[in-house]
């Protein structure tokens, strides 16, 4: 099974993101996971469309924008204009997930939906035809460096059986606490899209990414 790795820059050195992009490219990344936090949906703040636009000018990595915001409807267009290739909304952040996924798809971009640790996967049943990525949050969203919540392995297995029945390809993502120990566990449960942040940015980024890719290939 091909396993994709989407490095999150949440724990990167923000004073030198151009270098970070180069390190990730050298390490073999294809995706860049961009955590957008508004201080309301989650208790942390990150960055907005202008930063994404600046990064877009420096790399061809696939931009995977993860909206951890209230009122995501107001930010879909700005992030598409800034260069997002994929936009993931949170199921818990809107009364109208179907409408927002449809809006992302109508813009020609890949649409993702994220589930907080306590959210049931059954909520996705009537959205599946609009989804390119399901992102299981294996930590409570808002901060890097948290420990993987083990009971999310059960949810990954449930979602795996749902995506197998879908006519289109749906990536099964996991976000939070992914490292050399947890990656094999989530892959065994069915995940094929791993978001990872603090593991990569402790020490040698290029080596850490290469090590993770190798572990994923062997799993
Ligand atoms: O969405 C996120 C936090 O809300 C991050 O993408 C996630 O936590 C990755 O960081 P780490 O690998 O350090 O857990």
UniProtKB/TrEMBL annotation:
Record: residues binding a divalent metal cation: 33, 35, 66, 175
Cofactor binding description: Binds 1 divalent metal cation per subunit.
Catalytic site positions: 35 (proton acceptor), 175 (proton donor)
Function description: Catalyzes the reversible epimerization of D-ribulose 5-phosphate to D-xylulose 5-phosphate.
Origin species: Carboxydothermus hydrogenoformans (strain ATCC BAA-161 / DSM 6008 / Z-2901)
Catalysed reaction equations from the record: D-ribulose 5-phosphate = D-xylulose 5-phosphate
Residues the entry annotates as binding substrate: 8, 66, 142-145, 175-177, 197-198
Keywords of the record: Carbohydrate metabolism, Cobalt, Isomerase, Manganese, Metal-binding, Zinc
Enzymatic class: isomerase
Cell cycle recorded as keyword: no
Cofactor(s) named in the record: Co(2+); Zn(2+); a divalent metal cation; Fe(2+)
GO cellular component: cytoplasm
KW Metal-binding (keyword) present: yes
PROSITE patterns: RIBUL_P_3_EPIMER_1, RIBUL_P_3_EPIMER_2
Name used for this protein in its record: Ribulose-phosphate 3-epimerase
A matching Pfam family: Ribul_P_3_epim
Top-level taxon: Bacteria
InterPro entries, A to Z: Aldolase_TIM, Ribul_P_3_epim, Ribul_P_3_epim-like, RibuloseP-bd_barrel
Protein EC: 5.1.3.1
GO molecular function, one term: D-ribulose-phosphate 3-epimerase activity
Family as reported in the entry's similarity comment: Belongs to the ribulose-phosphate 3-epimerase family.
Pathway, per record: Carbohydrate degradation
């Amino acid at each position: 099974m091909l396993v994709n790795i989407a490095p999150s820059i949440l724990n990167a050195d923000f004073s030198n993101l151009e270098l970070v992009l180069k390190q990730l490219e050298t390490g073999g990344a294809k995706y860049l996971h961009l955590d957008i936090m508004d201080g309301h949906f989650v208790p942390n703040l990150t960055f907005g469309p202008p930063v994404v636009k600046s990064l877009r000018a420096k790399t061809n990595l696939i931009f995977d924008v993860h909206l951890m915001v209230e009122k995501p409807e107001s930010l879909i267009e700005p992030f598409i204009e800034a260069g997002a290739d994929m936009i993931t909304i949170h199921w818990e952040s809107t009364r109208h997930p179907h409408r927002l996924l449809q809006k992302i798809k109508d813009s020609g971009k890949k649409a993702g939906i994220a589930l907080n640790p306590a959210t049931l996967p059954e909520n996705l049943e009537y959205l599946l035809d609009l989804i390119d990525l399901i992102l299981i949050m294996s930590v409570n969203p808002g901060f890097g460096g948290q420990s993987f919540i083990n009971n999310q392995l059960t949810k990954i297995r449930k979602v795996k059986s749902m995506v197998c029945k879908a006519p289109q390809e749906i990536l099964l993502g996991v976000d939070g606490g992914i490292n050399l120990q947890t990656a094999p566990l989530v892959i065994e449960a069915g995940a094929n899209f791993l978001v990872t942040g603090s593991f990569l940015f402790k020490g040698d980024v290029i080596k850490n990414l290469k090590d993770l890719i190798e572990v994923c290939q062997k799993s």
